[in-house]
Amino acid sequence: MKSRLQWSHGRGAQAVVARRQAYAAEVLVKFLVLVGLLYMPVLLFHWGEWIPFALAGGYLFWELGRINSALGELADLWNEQREQEQEPARTAALK
């Protein structure tokens, strides 16, 4: 799965993480649409009204997992970049 976050190199040692679109608004709209779709069987079969919100809550947990993996990916990239920058300094200090 590809992250929605983009790694942009800045000047010097700075780096910026830019998002491509309004992520929270998109997730909220998807959540509400999912609740609306799951609410139809509740109206037809007179099930408990909490069921659509519980099922749509699973979607929020899935999105949380995606954010966690994207931030882990960015942390790995950051660590790789810092390691490459520090390696010449270590070898120079050991000489």
Can you describe this structure?
A two-stranded antiparallel ribbon has the order 1-2. Strand 1 (5-9) and strand 2 form a beta hairpin. It has helices at 23-45, 51-94, and strands spanning 5-9, 15-19. The model has no long low-confidence stretch (mean pLDDT 78). The protein is rod-shaped and about 75 Å long. Helix content is 71%, strand content 11%. Helix 1 runs antiparallel to helix 2 (51-94). It starts with a strand and ends with a helix. With 95 residues, it is mainly α.
Task: Based on the model shown, name its key terms.
95 residues; mainly alpha; two-stranded antiparallel sheet; 2 strands; 11% strand
The side-by-side strand order for the widest beta sheet comes to: 1-2
Structural class: mainly alpha
Shape: rod-shaped
Number of strands: 2
The ordered H/E elements are: EEHH
